[in-house]
Specification:
Blueprint (H helix, E strand, L loop, with lengths): L1 H11 L6 E4 L7 E11 L3 H13 L3 E5 L15 E5 L6 E5 L4 E5 L4 H10 L2 E2 L11 H6 L17 E7 L5 E5 L5 H6 L8 E8 L1 E2 L2 E10 H5 L3 H5 L4 E7 L4 E10 L8 E3 L3 E2 L1 H13 L4 H16 L3 E3 L11 E4 H5 L8 E2 L7 E2 L2 E5 L3 H17 L12 E6 L23 E5 L2 E2 L11 H14 L3 E2 L6 H7 L5 H14 L8 H5 L5
Parallel strand pairs: 2-4, 3-4
Antiparallel strand pairs: 1-2, 5-6, 6-10, 7-11, 8-9, 8-10, 12-14, 12-18, 13-14, 13-22, 15-17, 16-19, 20-24, 21-23, 21-25, 22-23
Helix pairs in contact: 8-9
The chain binds flavin-adenine dinucleotide and 2-acetamido-2-deoxy-beta-D-glucopyranose (NAG) (3 copies).
One 2-acetamido-2-deoxy-beta-D-glucopyranose binds next to loops.
Length: 505
Amino acid sequence: MLRNSIAALASLLGATSAFEFYTFDGPGSPSCHNVVEVHNATSVAEMASLVKDAARRGLQVRAGGKGHMWYDTQCSDDATVIIRTEFVNGISDFDLEGGSVVVEGGVTFFQLAEYLHERGANIGTGLVNWNITLGGSIAMGAHRTSLREDAVVVGGVLALDIIDGNGDVRQVERDESSEEWLAASTSLGLLGIIARIKMQIFPETKVYAMQTTLQENDVLNGDIYKLISPYLTANFWWWPSQHKFHWRTYDIVPTNTSSQLGFQSTFSVTALEAGAAVVLLNSGKYSSIPNLAAEGIFFGLWDKPNFHDKVTDAEITDWPIYGWNYDVLIGGLYPGQKPEWEYGLKGYTLELAFPVTRANEVLKRIRALFDAETAKGMPMASTYRSGINIKFGKAHFDLLGQVTTDTADGQDWSKGAIMFDFPSFRPSLGDEKRYNEAFYINLANTLVDEFPCRPHWTKNTRDVFKRAVKNLDPSYLSRFKAVRQKFDPKGIYRSVVGEIIGMYD
Ligand SMILES: Cc1cc2nc3c(=O)[nH]c(=O)nc-3n(C[C@H](O)[C@H](O)[C@H](O)COP(=O)(O)OP(=O)(O)OC[C@H]3O[C@@H](n4cnc5c(N)ncnc54)[C@H](O)[C@@H]3O)c2cc1C
Ligand SMILES: *[C@@H]1O[C@H](CO)[C@@H](O)[C@H](O)[C@H]1NC(C)=O
Ligand SMILES: *[C@@H]1O[C@H](CO)[C@@H](O)[C@H](O)[C@H]1NC(C)=O
Ligand SMILES: *[C@@H]1O[C@H](CO)[C@@H](O)[C@H](O)[C@H]1NC(C)=O
């Protein structure tokens, strides 16, 4: 009786009961704790009117893309309306000669690449992964891996239409002398919903992918800048218990170099492979041995090309691989296979960026921490199918970006950044913590405390963000805050990340 009348009163006041909203990992992996409504908007105008309505009702608002983020940092902990962009996905104004196209915020890389390829174009290196929205990746400063070309997606952006805190659309054009642009370039969704993006485009190209195995010492003591910077895009995958790295490079080739149509997949697995991996990795919750075994198996698998023929789906067995730009740099899922997380292979992650000038020092420090764990009788292994991802980003100046320059720390970020991207298996048993749980926490704390480093905005826990604020430039934060106050004076787009970095103090 009482319950009913409370419900009636709540609905009279326009309130609904709150629920969790999930990341791509689904139930058990909340991205928000206090969501009251989720809208599948279908146009920019509808998103704007939903914002006006939520603001009038005193609710918080956050955009929702494909949920390809890792922790509960999307929203604030106050009642929030999620406006999903999946169905706001128009592509228009294709102009290859002028070098641009306009996409709505919910367009995925996958969708844009297909559209452009059919018209003989691509977006260069401004791509991240197949099932992620352009709006979501630009908001959060997402990046590929390159020291030679722009690695951040926003590197290819010419203008952004943002729905501000009043529900009005504002256009911000690329202009490094404008505070609005420098804030919009990596906005964390705090200025509003990125509704439309004008992207640079280029004539379609073929590229190759090559992979070589390097001994750990040759990287730790090598010229890392020289191993990465000559290429269109390049990265390492680190296999700590194997003491080896895979070194992957890509570059453009003349279109007539090869007729091969290579198609990459980083996340496709068969049900059989996934089932075996879940059993092995779950037993690694209690002992190092299965984790070491898993790393050995994963290393062996990753040695071989993770490419199929796009037309026949036949496995490709020899390096190098050739194919169209997007198919080789990103690709997608193989027919009949699913991404690993849809089989219960869930993960934790951590990603920090350091000046590339300090790359050797950082990797050696991490090696020392691995060795200390071995000395304790608890050797570390990479429990992720593709190892530890070591990526790179060319410098790009803005206020909140991971690869910005001229910061108060006095470090040389101008040559770009090295990113330590450390995914690990999340056991589906008990407390879901890892065998070396304390090690993972200590590793993050040590790196944040000992090095100038910047967190990736969707790949870290609240604790890591809190600890990492000291490494951010206070003057850049206050410049961002000034723009934030103009775009969203009432703070309806607040998130815990925005709170932690002091945007609402
Ligand atoms: C398997 C996988 C691989 C990945 N690979 C990479 C990688 O190589 N490099 C890299 O940098 N990152 C990578 N990421 C991280 C990913 O790029 C970011 O988390 C990105 O923000 C996810 O975009 P989304 O469309 O899924 O947005 P969501 O996950 O739905 O949202 C992420 C955040 O962006 C906000 N947001 C979403 N859309 C908008 C919008 N239109 N306007 C304003 N704010 C918005 C949301 O409110 C939320 O705070 C990867 C993630 C996964 C799961
Ligand atoms: C893209 O991601 C969404 C959300 O995680 C999922 O439902 C969908 O199946 C994915 N699509 C592909 C092609 O992977
Ligand atoms: C929104 O779209 C998703 C598919 O992406 C669907 O699962 C969900 O039910 C839709 N929600 C509403 C309220 O229509
Ligand atoms: C590719 O085309 C260029 C220019 O048309 C030509 O010089 C070259 O020989 C061709 N290469 C191959 C492998 O056919």
